[in-house]
Amino acid sequence: MPDYLTQCFDNLRTGWNPQEPTLTPDSIRQYGFGSLGQCVVDGQVYAQPLVVQNIASPGGSVGDFLLVATEKNWIYAFDTVTLSQIWFRHLLPQGERLVTPADVATCGNVAPFIGITSTPVVDAARKIMFVCAKSVASHSHGSVFHHRLYAINLHPGNDWKPPVQISATLQYGGQANYFNPQWQLQRPGLLLMNGVVYIGFGGHCDFHPGIYRGWVLAYDATTLQQVGAFVSTVSGLGGIWQAGRGLAGDGQFVYCHTGNGNLGGNDLGDSVLKLSIQPGNPLLQLNGFFSPCDQQLLNAGDADLGSGGPLLLPDQPGPFPHLMVSAGKEGTIYLLNRDTSLGGFQPPPAGWTPCDQNGIPTPCTNSNLVITTLWMVLGQAAKCTVDRDALFGGPAYYAPAGKFPRIYYSGQDEPVKVFEYDQTQGKLSGPIDQAVDAISNGSIPVVSSNGNKDGVLWVASRGGANGSRFLLAYDLDPNLGLGSPTALLANLSAGPFSTEQGGGASLGPPATVANARVYVAGDGQVTVFGLLKPQKGCCFIATAVAGRESPVVSTLVLFRETYLATSRLGQRFIILYERFSPAFARAIEKRRTLRVIARSLIVWPAFLLAKSLLGRDTHQR
User: Fold this and answer.
1) How many other CB atoms are found less than 10 A from the CB of residue 613?
2) CATH code, residues 16-531
3) How many CB atoms lie within 10 A of CB 146?
4) pLDDT tens-digit profile of 466-487?
5) Average of per-residue pLDDT across 425-442
6) Assessment of whether the complete model's pTM goes beyond 0.85
7) Where are the domains of the chain?
8) 32 in helix, strand or coil?
């Protein structure tokens, strides 16, 4: 079973965990699905929770960790089995305090504190978590703001190396560009690729446009020394925020979106960037960019491309093996070829408008390097204005068996929409399907599956004025369709999350689906979901072999509750059993030969052991 080490599961940001054999549509329908409890924390959780397995403690025990970071600069490790707290730590140096919206004169989209906003990233081989935290030291002569990069041992949560102060100065065209820690917000999830940690920065709600810029800073993951830097604009703005979606990487290049800002010269506002390390050079190299043909309208209407983040498709057969999709507030989806310079900028013809005199959308034409443009297909607002707030975050990817790959977008206040990439023609089309339920404020969806089958789409709403999040689950059977009445598997409350002081939508992180659990972050808690037992204690394999009413099953259930559930080791066995046995049980139910083997080698020996121990316990009492 895989770890969940980075935002949206992998560096491509597909959001697809293909090794989840337990949380299948059939098991959710059969055993039920709901809340199993909460992990309580101090502060809002904008960072997506992460899951790392087989962490050894100094005492010799081994466990699976749920890692959580909050806006109050607390980081936590919880046991994924018992949900008990293993350790916690406050990343707030002595003499410093938490940053508030008043400190940065912001619109309040992150409130009441601004600390750890981005999703950390884990180096699984070295058992280290990289975290970026913001704080401020107040002095009589003024306030000094800090961004720091921490490298934390997963157990016991201490520093692997001392944290480093984040700073940068770049020269462009004779002009010095300074990283200003007060006005920069570190929102995109961190990227760890080829031994380098990449960190993206934007601003606080486009305030202070002449001071903040979009930055990508690169740090060696071993020395924590800065090895590269890039600034998106010299005139200001161009922030890299992506509604929290992580910087993406394909093993060679780093990809990101920029927000509102000028375009031209050394300014790359509202653009998709393709960057790489230059050994021995402090500058990250710009290997290509794409700016929509209506970039000037996007910038003028606060419809920045930077509200979304890229999804890099896994390698594809056909004419275009290396692809990516991008979209922002306008709701237009672009399919780009990563093997090119991405297309640059092609301005629209003179007099062009988004719609003709009859109100029919008239898209402008981008470079011929842009493979597909799906004009304003996301969002519910009128299509004759670019100021639409259609999307925050990005999509999920899934390749069901026997079908072309699917891409799932959850736009603002609309149902999830499905798009399809035709690998033979090299073309993106859609929406080919959509769900029924509109998602308030949208979502960053994720997918789990058992290989290329048993897919489930998980949609955790972003939160908002009602102060809560909801978790929806959809069956991704391609023959069923999201609009089918039976496609919706769950629609559950996922706890409070409302931070906007200005009354807008919050930006809750995507759900984390790992090892038969779903984790949804919120205000002061992470809600944990999973399969519900159809009765007290469920012996999947024994039930498949002997039937639910068999005395063998009742004996094993009693043994489970009497012995296993009362010890930490037994609890861990239960969670592993519930994780792996349902798939085996379903196979047993279909084949008599497997039932005979399971009865002889698993069920009967377990029954005899349980009966013996229970009988001894009764005799002693």
Assistant:
1) 13
2) 2.140.10.10
3) 18
4) 578 999 999 999 899 999 999 9
5) 94
6) yes
7) 16-531, 540-620
8) coil
